[in-house]
Amino acid sequence: MILSAVIVAAAFIFIGSFGGKAVFKEKRQKIIIDAGHGLPDGGAVASDGTIESDLNLAIAKHLYEKLHAAGFECIMLRNDENSIYTEGNTIHAKKVSDIKNRVETAAKNDDAFVVSIHMNTFETPDVHGAQVFYKSGSSISKDIAVEIQNIINLKYQPDNTKVSKPIPSNVYLFNHINNDSVLVECGFLTNNDDLSKLKDADFQEDISKSIAEVITYKLSGSETNVE
Predict the structure, then answer these.
(1) What string of DSSP letters covers 122-161?
(2) Which tens digits make up the pLDDT trace of 62-99?
(3) In DSSP terms, which residues pair with 184 in a beta bridge?
(4) How many Cα atoms occupy the beta-carbon half-sphere of 55 within 13 Å?
(5) Among 190, 168, 187, 68, CA closest to 122
(6) Domains (ranges, CATH) in the chain?
(7) How far is CA 103 from CA 132, 173, 201, in A?
(8) 33 by DSSP, 3-state: which?
(9) Which DSSP helix (H) or strand (E) runs through 54?
């Protein structure tokens, strides 16, 4: 009953998006959640000392809880503040080991959909807002990314005009895996308003909810008449 309620509730969010058509949802039972970075590589650092990897992990944990409750098998690439390196005596060597281990986990679970959580930065503080990227050439990845972006913009960031784009070809993880996937840049650590929201537990919940709702709807594996 709980699972059914979650799926039905998620479906209603997309009533306006599909114009009353029957929508077939691809069945996908396994989700890899990638909280970007992890010590000794904390990623970007905000002016107040906030470390990107901490925010990535907080949102990833919210996302895990929601998708697990919806019945998905979820694999967290990291569960604490540390990255997943298994060798190396320098920071660089540990970073290389970490990304190789992430690639290996994704390759071993090539049927899984990958969601990667990161934070953004820019050279000027005026740029703001979440942006969702998708695996180039994957229609389901693009579909999911577009819907996540739409929900974030409409419900939580009405002044955000960003649109979904393909994941840049120089992002190592996605350049070395074949999994359908999205990369969610949740906001800019260089923008004070974004930073304040990203540190807020309620906003972290909102971002993870947006991602979980779309994935639950798109990958639950049934045909639904949306009116």
Answers:
(1) -SSTT----EEEE-TT-HHHHHHHHHHHHHIIIII-TT--
(2) 999 999 999 999 999 999 999 999 999 999 999 999 99
(3) 117, 132
(4) 28
(5) 190
(6) 27-222 (3.40.630.40)
(7) 20, 6, 30
(8) strand
(9) helix 52-69
